[in-house]
Amino acid sequence: MGPPQLQTAIVQTQEPSLPTSSLRLTVSHSVPIPALPSLNHVLVRVLAVALNPTDFKMVTYFPQPGTNVPIGCDFCGVVEEAGSEATLTSFPRGTRVCGGLFPYGRTERKEDAISGAFAQWVAADVSQLLRVPPTLNDLQGAAIGGICWGTCVLALFADPEALALQGRPSRPDEKNIPVVVYGGATATGTMACQLLMLSGYSPIAVTSAGSAPLAQVYGATRRAIRTKEVMGFEGFGHRVVLGENTYSRDANVELYNRGNEWANEMQTSLDQGSIKPHPVREVEGQWQGIIEGLGMLQRGEVRGQKLVIRVAVFHIPARKGQRVTDAVARNCVALQGGITRSVAPAVLDLERDALRATTAPWAGMPKLYHNDFPYPYRQC
Questions:
Q1: Which end of the chain is less packed: N or C, by CB atoms within 10 Å?
Q2: Which residues, in sequence order, are CB contacts of 326 under 8 Å at separation 6+?
């Protein structure tokens, strides 16, 4: 049984009564679920999302009201369908993944802007998706996303017109060259510091005095030069038009391919625990929480944290008709206001003692993670 035809998502509204300075966003329950535009795409059921400043800036300065296309960039979710058997082999159903999208602006191909992260379902190109390790929960997976590390890869390594550093985590530079990271305590800054350190460089973070300790935790060593204005969406491989201004970019297949290569570097570093997400701060409220969180970013109320929101509310199903005992259920779910909410996958590291209290085939299983089930969660 496949997904339904319509979904809930955050879209831009045409409401004329809203002031120009407000975020013209609304929760829509009639947004089409995206079709897979290529054999290399997968349909992902979204579990959690992370907010970026670009999410409120794009709808404020480059609005496209009434398009009924979900907004949002960074997500964590579970693979449900794939465009081909080959893709399904690499990303089986039930694989927990994170990634980034860019649903803003106009492209030369309509199918390139059909999916935004702030929705129940997204269509994502697997070339730059990451498998989320069991050491990270859904919120942390969303914080890793794809926009921060993708922007860092372009600015520091992949773009020949930017720094074009040659080191990488699998082949670090041996000279330990210092590299200045302006805004080193932001989510993109802490990711840049980590990638630089792993690639053999010495990141020097420029931050406020209060934010300096955070940057140091993520690898900064101490407190134009040559510049290029890098736009993170350049790595998506298609043209993005944001009106007649300096922000529009033509398609760049070279950067797209280099970004794909770096996805492998990121995956290895993530699996080894070398890359850590920015400190997360959960905003309650599901869909309204997304709008509230974007308002917090717009008002400058967030420092040193990545705002994340749970989108899906799931519970663990019984396998083969067996019921999960109350003892295990207490470890799996939390009840708040009568609503069953998901607990982070890392918390679902059920120990053997708890599992012994359950009926077969659960009994004696040392670990329980998403990938133990083809469809690991069922929506409440």
A1: N
A2: none
Q: What percent of the chain has pLDDT over 90?
A: 52
Helices 286-298 and 53-61, axial angle in degrees (round to 10): 80
Task: Using the Cα atoms of residue 282, residue 284, residue 290 and residue 291 in order, give the sign of their dihedral.
Answer: negative
The span from the CA of 94 to the CA of 63, in Å, is 35
CB 21 within 8 A of CB 57: no
Name which of 242, 244, 222, 224 is nearest 233 in CA terms.
242
Amino acid at 196: L
Rounded Cα distance between 116 and 238, Å, is 16
SS3 readout for 296-353: HHHCCCCCCCEEEEECCCEECCCCCCCCCCHHHHHHHEEEECCEEEECCCCCCCCCHH
- Decide if 101 contacts 128 (C-beta within 8 A): no
**CA 50 – CA 75 distance, rounded (Å):** 6
* pLDDT digit string, tens, across residues 309-356: 999 955 444 343 434 333 333 333 332 222 333 333 333 333 223 333
Distance CA 37, CA 23 (A): 30
Contact residues for 141 (Cβ-Cβ < 8 A; gap 6+): 47, 48, 76, 96, 97, 98, 132, 277
pLDDT in tens, 121-163: 999 999 989 999 999 999 999 999 999 999 999 999 988 989 9
Q: Are 315 and 40 spatial neighbours (Cβ–Cβ below 8 Å)?
A: no
